Amino acid sequence: MSRVNKYLLYNFLGTFASLFSTLFLIMSIVFFIQIARVTSYIEITFGELLKLYAFMLPRVLLFVVPIAFFVALAMTLFRLSKENESIVIFTLGSSPNLIARFFLIFSIVLSSLLFIVAIVMIPTAAQLNVNFIDYKKTVAKLNLKPTQFGQKFSDWMVYIGSESRDENGTVYNDVVMFNPFVKESQRLIVAQNAKIINIKSTIELSLNNGKIYDINDKTYHQSNFKSMSIRTQQNESISNVDNIKDYWLEAKTNAKRKKDLSTYILVSLFPFATTLFAISLGIVTYRYEKGAVYLGTFGILFGYFTLIMLLGSRPSIAIPSIFTVFFISGIWFYRLKIMRRY
Fold first, then answer.
1. Sheet holding 151-153: strands in order across?
2. Helices 255-282, 292-311: crossing angle, 10 deg rounding
3. Tens of pLDDT, residues 268-299
4. C-alpha span between 44 and 224 (Å, rounded)
5. β-strand 202-215 against 186-199: which pairing, if any?
6. What is the pTM of this model?
7. What letter does residue 40 receive in the DSSP assignment?
8. How many of the other CB atoms lie within 10 Å of CB of 191?
């Protein structure tokens, strides 16, 4: 590696690290908000929250790294042009073609690593995430809270008046349950207290001293009980985290999997597809092109990801067409803007 390339790489990595940390923080907050939804129906500890975040981490990296690479490369070269260091680099015998060749090789390596993350790590992490949540549904208590509406146990809507504890665990007091799925009638259960019992893979709600009301247009039926159990069978199936091929073969019939396949592959190819755009936008005559880099980087990002959203449902068309259009356009733009001047 030449001294010029080392100098460029040093400056690029500094800018990349700054952008990466900012984008990583923003994306992490977004994914933490998504993870927080899980706590509406199961209880998890802080350590388990971090485990769920670790399952999301490959997706965070897949989106943050390509964007940070593209913007950092353009801004690094723009800063060097602004400070007239690019002129010194070219005077010392380097050329835009040597810079382009160096960063194209760098982007190929980066895109290859991101491709592995997209095709192997993300499906594995996604299945581990599903398995973990299913496991928590089976072994953990349902997260029922007093005086809160909208809570569910199986098909029942549940309202808890208060809770207390005894030697066997949590006791829910003044329980009201409504089943909206009973046809042609309304079913309501009122109980003095209840407990949630975990029996192997079955969660059981044990109700004491209560009444059952069945109400329709013509009749009103009331039953009293001393004890009653309502059980819900949790999902015991554990998906195979090793068979990546079968995971992606679902893209033939599953619309979401098709869009994921297009999105993940195209995002992983983004550094390689747009390297020449970044170099062309970064190397400028600062006196005349002060704002071009900002408008240009935003335009490339907006165009690339907009096309992914529009064509993502058809991977066979989206992947080759979007990548080819941006890569060839990058070559044309590089020749028009850089090779004609330097």
1. 151-153, 156-166, 169-179, 186-199, 202-215, 220-233
2. 160
3. 999 999 999 999 998 877 666 666 788 899 99
4. 36
5. antiparallel
6. 0.73
7. G
8. 22
